[in-house]
Specification:
Number of helices: 5
Number of domains: 1
Strand order of the largest sheet: 1-2-3-4-5-6
Radius of gyration: 15 Å
Number of strands: 6
Distance between the termini: 40 Å
CATH topology: Leucine-rich repeat, LRR (right-handed beta-alpha superhelix)
Largest sheet: 6 strands, parallel
CATH class: Alpha Beta
Strand content: 15-25%
Shape: globular
Helix content: 25-40%
Order of helices and strands: EHEHEEHEHEH
CATH superfamily: Ribonuclease Inhibitor
């Protein structure tokens, strides 16, 4: 099994981390929602061959779990988020694994000022990104932020 998606799972929160524990070794692509600390830990421990991790955050989560992101082995990270965007960017900046070279964000359309902390994110994360996809129409000010990141 090389790819698995856990989307809209309604079972006990311990089930998905357990499945990851037993099926994680060969996984190359994984999609998850309902992010929990045990889930992040198990992905870090049991998915050594992970290339792409897709994360959906559709409700409030415990952002302290982002500290466990540092141990992820994924090379690409796709994140869809609808809550606490500013807090998320601040926490993620210091915890993006160094091996992540491609990162994509999709921020819910109901959120105004979607990327107010994006500059802070780029200033505080590693500089090994080959691709940053914002799924967003960018204005000149925003483009300057990205260009400054590229120059450093």
């Amino acid at each position: 099994l090389k790819e698995i998606s856990f989307i809209r799972d309604k079972w006990n929160i311990d089930i998905t981390p357990s499945i990851i524990k037993y099926l994680g070794e060969p996984l190359q692509r994984l999609s998850v929602e309902n992010l929990t600390i045990p889930l992040i830990v198990n992905i870090s421990l049991y998915c050594p061959n992970l290339i792409l991790l897709k994360i959906g955050i559709y409700s409030h989560i415990d952002f302290s779990g982002l500290a466990f992101f540092k141990d992820l082995r994924a090379k690409m990270l796709n994140i869809t988020i609808f809550y606490d965007i500013d807090k998320f960017f601040r926490k993620l900046a210091n915890n993006v694994p160094i091996n992540v070279s491609k990162i994509s964000f999709y921020v819910g359309s109901c959120i105004s000022n979607k990327f107010s902390k994006f500059k802070e994110f780029l200033e505080n994360c590693h500089n090994n990104f080959e691709m940053i996809n914002l799924n967003h129409i960018i204005e000149l000010e925003f483009l300057k932020i990205v260009l400054n990141y590229i120059e450093r």
